[in-house]
C-alpha cells in the first residue's frame, strides 16, 4: 500500500525544505519591517540617544555631550549641515582630516610625524 505525501511528511520529525524556506523568508521580512518601522539604522551612531557630537578645536578629536549641556572648554559644535551622524558616513570621514581652528575656520588637520 502506498502512503500519501501528507502522511509521509507527518511521519518525519523535521519540517520539509519548503517549509524551512518559508519560515526563513518570513523571519527576514519581519526583521526588515522592524528596522523600517522603528527607524533604526544598521550603521553605528556617532553618539547615543540624548547626545550630540562635538569637535576638539585644533585637532580631529571628538566627544559626545548631553543635549542639555554646552560643549566643554576646547570643544565646539560641528558646523550646521556638517555633523557626522553615523560611523563612516560622509561627514565622519571628512572630519577625520579636518578641524576647526580657534577663530572658527575649517582647516585641514596637519599630519602627525
From TrEMBL:
Q: InterPro entries recorded for this chain?
A: SCO0607-like
Region feature Disordered, mapped onto this chain = 1-20
Protein origin, superkingdom? Bacteria
**What keywords does the record list, in alphabetical order?**
Lipoprotein
**Entry-linked NCBIfam families:** lipo_SCO0607
Instruction: Tell me the protein's name.
Output: Lipoprotein
Organismal lineage: Bacteria, Bacillati, Actinomycetota, Actinomycetes, Kitasatosporales
